[in-house]
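Technical appendix A lists one of the benchmark inputs used to test multi-chain prediction within the project. The record comprises two sequence entries:
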Amino acid sequence: MSLIFAAATETAHAAEHAIHVDWIGVIRTIGTVVSMAAGLLFVLAGTIGVLRLPDFYTRLHAAGMTDTLGAELILLALIFQSDSLQMVLKLLLVAFFLLVTSPTATHAVAHAAYRAGLKPLLGDYRAPDLEEDGT
Amino acid sequence: MTPFMGYFMLGSAFLLIVSMGLMLGRLLGGPTLYDRLLAVNSFGTKTVLFLCVFCFIIDRPDGVDIALLYALMNFIATIAVLKFFNYRALDVTLSGADAEDAR
C-alpha cells in the first residue's frame, strides 16, 4: 500500500510544509491494480483449466468463461490508466468486440464438436442424441 | 506513467506471455481438432490483451489499433477453419435452405 501512495504522490504537487496527495491518481492506481490482478487471475485460471481438465467440453467451459471476463477486466485496468479520450474509446471498442466475438467463437467450436459426434464424459448420465434434438 | 505502474505493467505482460506459453501446450498436444481450435482462439484473445498492455509499456497508443484488428481477424479465422473442417470447402453458403442442402 505504501508503494501505491508513493507512486501517486510522486506526480503530485508538493504544497508548503505538507505533501498534497493526488486522490484521483490514487483511485486510478488502485483501480488499475485491482482490475489487472483479478483479470490476470482469471486468465491464468482459465489456462490451467484448459491444460488440466479431462474432457473437451470442460476445457471449453474453462477457456470460454474465464477468457471473456479476464479480458474485460484487463481492458478495464488499461482504461483506468489511459490519459486521452481517444485511447479510452479505442479500448472500449476492443472490449466490445471481444465481448461479442469471444462467446460466439466458443459457441461455434462447441456446436461444431457436438455435430461432429464428440461425446462428453458423462459418467452415469446420457448425452441427448443428435437425431432427437435436431440442430 | 509512474515507475511503479511501469513495473506493474511489465509484470502483467510477463504473466500474459506465461499464459500464452502454457496455452501452446494444449495447442501442440490436444487430442482432437477442437481442442487445438479452442487453444488457438484463446491464444488469440491473450495476444490481443498482450498487445494492449505492451502498447501502454512502450507508450505508443497506435498499438491498440493493431489489437482491434487482431481481435476481428482471430474471430473470422476461427469461424473459417470451423466451416472448412465441417464442409471440407469454404464456398458453401450458410443461409436458410442452402445450409440444409449442404448437410
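Chain B touches chain A through 45 residues (CB under 8 Å). Chain B has a mean pLDDT of 84. Comparable benchmark entries are summarised in Table A2.
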